[in-house]
Amino acid sequence: MLMTTNETDPAAISGGMTEGEAKALYRLMTWLSPSFPVGAFAYSSGIEWAVEAGDITDAASLRGWLAAVLAEGSGFCDAVFVAQSFRAASEGDHALKEIAELAAAFVPSRERQLETTSQGRAFIDIARAAWNSPGLDAMVAACGGPIVYPVAVGLVSAAHGIPLEPTLHAFLHAVVSNWISAGSRLIPLGQTDSQRVLADLEPVAAATAARAGAASLDDLGSATFRADLASLRHETQYTRLFRS
C-alpha cells in the first residue's frame, strides 16, 4: 500500500486507501505523467540517431535498446540519483550538494545535459507553483547549482513525504514512456506495438527500481556505450525532430 511519511490520519477513504496515500498517488501520477509540462516530448535521449543509424528499426529492436539503457545505462544511474537525493533531502544530509554535482557531471553529452537540466528546473518550478512544500526551498538551495531531472524528482518527492519505492517506479515508468513515445514517432510504431513494448519492459523497470533503491553511489556505472555515442552524434545529425 502506498504510504506517506508526513500523514498521520489513518482514516480510510474509498478503495481502502488513507487520505495520505491517495494524495501521494495523485501527486506521483501528476508529476510523472506525460502531460506534466517539463518538455519531455522534445527529447529522444539519442534514439533519433539510433533510428537513423539503423540500430532501431521496429518494436523488437526498440525494446532491446530500451531494456539495455534502462537496466545498464542512464535508466539505472538516474534511478540511483533519485534514491540518493531523496534520502539525503529527507535526512538533511550535507552530501546533497555532492550528489547533485555528481548527477550533473554524469551526463555523457551536451544535449543530454540540456535535456536533464531543463527538465529538472521545470519539474521543480511547476511542482513548487502548484504544490509548494515548506522544506523544498531549503533542499533546492542545498544543491548549490543546476539540478538535473532525477535529483529534482527525488527532492520534490522527499519534500512531500512520498515514499521512495513508488517514486522510483513512477520515475522509471515516465522515462520509459517518453523513450517509447519518441521511438513510436521515429520508426514509426502504432499505438498497440508501443504499448506492447511498454508491457515487455515492466519487469525490467521493476528490477531496475529494486537495484537502484538498494544501490550506493559506488554502484553507479553504465555499459551502454552505443547509447552514449548516439547522444553525442545526435548533436551533428543533419535532420532532427528532437533536441537530443
Structure description:
- The protein has 244 residues and is mainly α.
- It has one domain (23-33, 40-236): Urease accessory protein UreF (Orthogonal Bundle), CATH 1.10.4190.10.
- Helices cover 64% and strands 0% of the residues.
- It has helices spanning 19-31, 47-53, 59-72, 74-91, 96-105, 110-130, 136-143, 149-159, 164-186, 191-200, 202-214, 225-233.
- The longest helix is centred in the C-terminal third of the chain and has 23 residues, at 164-186.
- Mean pLDDT is 93; it is low at 5-11.
CATH architecture: Orthogonal Bundle
Helix tally equals: 12
Tell me the structural class. mainly alpha
**How large is the share of residues in beta strands?**
under 5%
Fourth-level CATH superfamily: Urease accessory protein UreF
Number of strands: 0
Q: Which fold name corresponds to the CATH topology? A: Urease accessory protein UreF
The H-and-E topology, N to C, reads as HHHHHHHHHHHH
* N-to-C CA distance: 37 Å
**Portion in helices:** 55-70%
CATH class division: Mainly Alpha
- Outline type: globular
What are the segments in which pLDDT stays under 50 over at least 5 consecutive residues? 5-11
The main sheet comes to:
none
How do you describe this structure in short?
The protein has 244 residues and is mainly α. Helices cover 64% and strands 0% of the residues.
